[in-house]
Amino acid sequence: MKRLLGIAAAVFLLGLTGAAGWLPWWSLAFWGGLAGWAVARGAAQGFWGGFIGGLFLWLVFALVRDFDNGGILSAHIGALLMGVPRWGLWGITGLLGGLLGGMGALTGYQARAFYRHLRQ
Amino acid sequence: MGLLHLPIPVGQQRLPALGCFFNPFSGFWRNAEPQRGPVLRSEVQLSGLSGPVEVVYDERLVPHIFAGNLEDALRVQGYVTAQHRLWQMDLSARRAAGRLSEVLGERTLELDRLARRRGMVLAAENAVGQWRRSAEGMRLLEAYCAGVNAWIAQLSPADYPIEFKLLGYAPEPWSPLKTALIVENMAETLCGGENDLLSTLSLQQFGRETFDYLYPEWNPKQRPIVPDTGQWRGIVGSLGGETSASAPLPGRLSAQPPSEEYFVGSNNWAVAGSKTQNGAPFLCNDPHLSLSLPSIWFQIQLCTPEMNCYGVSLQGIPGIIIGFNEHLVWGVTNAGHDVADWYRLRWADAARTRYTVDGQEYPVRWRVERIGIRGREPLIDSVRYTIWGPVVYDHQPEHPLRDCAFRWVTHDEPHPNSMRSFLFLNTAKTYEDYREAIAYFDAPAQNFALATRQGEIAMTVQGQLPARRREQGRFLLDGSQKASAWAGFIPNEHLPALRSPSWGFVFSANQHSTPPSYPYYYTSRDFDDYRGRHLHDRLSSLQAANADSMARIQNDNFSRRAADALPVLLRLLKREALDGEGRRWVEELERWDCRYEAHSTVAPVYEVWFDTCYVRTWDEMLDDSSRQALLLPERWRFIELLEKDPNSPFFDRKDTPERETASDIATDAFLRMQAFFKKYPEKRRPWGQFRPVHIRHLAQIEAFGRTVEIGGHPTALNALSSTHGPSWRMMVELGDGVRAWGIYPGGQSGNPGSRFYDNFLNLWAQGRYHDLFFLKKAEDLPASAMFARQTVVPR
């Protein structure tokens, strides 16, 4: 569990480097990959750790921006996406962040396992 | 991963790549502005400035720019305009340049092709070529462009306006050519239309006598902008008759259903101090354009030691287009003259590479247009150019204009100072300055109203207006004779103008510029026939005017047309043919005050009845699928025929053996109107709901648009159709100080994620105004009304 939370925290903290907006969206998967490589001891642990970290990161930032904005933009975007409610946009954002972090961490773990296999 | 990284096609639309779009750091969430408003840096560095510039934003996000000279002011104008409206600038320039398909794909290809083929880019290139001849003008324009580019240069993709993210492309640097393209866009909207083909087809169909009966050019009830006071005595204007192409036309016109009434208009008027409460002159202006979000206008104040000017600007054009300074106020409406003609060519070879004029052969010049299309190979389009202009429709074998060249005033090289015309006006102090400033203005021709602090009022119809022979340009012209060419332009001193008339007001509402006694012939696609008359009546009876009475005029929903037509229709109606419900509706119509108020339940009844009468009468002009194949007579002529010639053969329907009269048409239309409301009971609503006003997003993104249910009608002074209307309402009183009120249906920000995107809209819909902050210095803005303060310093 500690490791899972460690991965999540690593993904969250490393992912904060994207806050300035200069890094591409897939940088989160890269950070997940690093955390998965360094910390994960199992595929499920890697995925869920990365997932939680990515989910929280994207969700928290979406929530902060949305509340700061008073929901003006999310109303427009929801209407644009065929009536998705505000909470639906939060959900999609969190889910995408989670998947990115999770898939990245899983890939990191698998890469490390493969590397070890090669060395053996 | 592809799902996250690549745009997702849904039908003709493309949804943005999910990963980019939902990323809260650089996707759409990034455009969610804090509720308070945009975060503006308190200090900005800008290359090229000669000194620091102060920008204070008032509580409505209107920037007030205080600079040491005009060049610095315009540089910062470019910067702040781009800061708030960058995507709108990009789209407008793309539209005129025929470059929409580069970002929107194949669905805009025909639009792009037409823009190129109509010579929009060529016209913009010509304009820039001329502007370069004025070193001072070019320096100012380049300063503006540099300001725009400074904003673009510091943007990261995360900071792009949301539309760039949705459509998946990046902004490009701004240039003088793009400014010229924005000017062309306005020209296309305001002076790109004509009726030449429809008039020619109608003349061929009906013959001269019937044509004159159906389509008289002068409405005897008309109140022209400039009356005849003997000022034109001795001027020899239009000589001789038309030189039109008489050969039958090939192909058929693929026209629109007739119900859509063409409508782009505006009102402006100035009232002398003798008619106002405070004894100070008053000027009002409300240009009626396509209503959009982001709004077409951007409010701004430019203050330098030489000038202090407030008003609305067009994105991409330096200076203020409609506004006021400490000395005078001006406003514009569209003159509406036809400045676009078609010349029928005589080809000298089957390949259409040579044509003859006065027996001499000329080769066509080719201009190759490369139209980029997203997701596809570009289209290479070769356009033929002749001495008259481009051959626009030769790529459509069935088009009746396929052998015609397009002559449009905006293709001509403008005056080198044409771009500075509004800048001169921004700094003008007197009537003479105003005349000198607008003398450089070429197109689209406008009615420039003026009021000065010295108490003068004036109106000038200004622009490059062809000096035509009688009826020249009303029909297709014969391109095989040099004699078909325009004989130059109406000299500036002969343009219709009015200076401080004894009756104390000047006004325009897109009606005829002059009565028929004006020595030069001109024609139009559609002069106004009702707003001008009603405005004249209101201004004639106006006494002790103040802001309230002026606002009531701008928001007046009374329709002169309905007032003309309704009594006639009611008289013609055979009441014995109506049922109980029909008779009740007639009673309501008899009580109706001809005001298109939002709550009126009678207005929709009248509207459907009138429109049905109109369409049922002109069955001769519609083709088998009820699309317009010939020119439809103007509504004023229709009402005149109802009243004065109810037995006209045109009231007879082609599809019945009986011979109908106006009375039969009015009765039949009434019954059809009743049937319409029975079939669609959901339409039986008050006017505001029956005809909602859509303020659409410029890229037609429905979720970014707004709909309001308000009164108004194209024939009322509050000229509102479902898509067009008062895009800026302004009232200015030039007393001891300047008092100004204004509003437009939108907001200063182009960002749908900003509270400033549409924050003026509700107030505008209620017919209310903002008291504008016209500052002498930055410190004059009360702290409670200040949103932000920026200092722009030289880099």
Question: In short, what is this structure?
Answer:
The complex is a heterodimer of chains A (120) and B (795). Chain A is an all-alpha fold and 120 residues long.
Explained architecture:
The complex is a heterodimer of chains A (120) and B (795). Chain A is mainly alpha-helical and 120 residues long. Chain A has helices at 2-15, 27-39, 43-69, 72-80, 86-119. In chain A, α2 runs antiparallel to α3 (43-69) and α3 (43-69) packs antiparallel against α5. The mean pLDDT of chain A is 91. Helices cover 29% and strands 20% of the residues of chain B. Chain B is built from 21 helices and 30 strands. In chain B, strands 3-30-4-5-9-10-11-12-19-20-22 form an eleven-stranded mixed beta sheet, with helices on one face. In chain B, strands 6, 7, 23, 26, 27, 28 and 29 form a seven-stranded antiparallel beta sheet that branches. Chain B has a three-stranded mixed beta sheet with strand order 8-24-25, with no helix packed on it. In chain B, α3 (70-97) crosses α9 (176-191). Chain B is globular and about 80 Å long. The mean pLDDT of chain B is 92. The A-B interface holds A 18-26, 28, 58, 61-62, 65-66, 68-70, 72-74, 76-81, 89, 92-93, 96-97, 100 and B 1, 4-5, 15, 18-20, 22-35, 156-159, 162, 166, 701-704, 752-755, 757.
Write the layout of secondary structure elements.
The complex is a heterodimer of chains A (120) and B (795).
Chain A: H1 2-15, H2 27-39, H3 43-69, H4 72-80, H5 86-119
Chain B: H1 2-5, E1 8-10, E2 13-15, H2 18-22, E3 43-46, E4 53-58, E5 63-66, H3 70-97, H4 101-104, H5 109-117, H6 120-131, H7 135-153, H8 162-167, H9 176-191, H10 196-214, E6 265-271, E7 282-290, E8 292-293, E9 297-304, E10 307-314, E11 322-325, E12 328-334, E13 340-344, E14 354-357, E15 360-363, E16 365-373, E17 376-385, E18 404-408, H11 421-427, H12 431-438, E19 446-452, E20 457-462, E21 477-478, E22 497-499, E23 505-508, H13 531-540, H14 547-554, H15 560-572, H16 580-591, H17 602-617, H18 635-644, H19 662-679, H20 687-690, E24 693-697, E25 706-708, E26 724-726, E27 729-734, E28 738-743, H21 761-765, E29 770-771, E30 786-794
Parallel strand pairs in B: 3-30, 5-9, 8-24, 13-21
Antiparallel strand pairs in B: 1-2, 4-5, 4-30, 6-7, 6-23, 7-26, 7-27, 9-10, 10-11, 11-12, 12-19, 13-18, 14-15, 16-17, 19-20, 20-22, 24-25, 27-28, 28-29
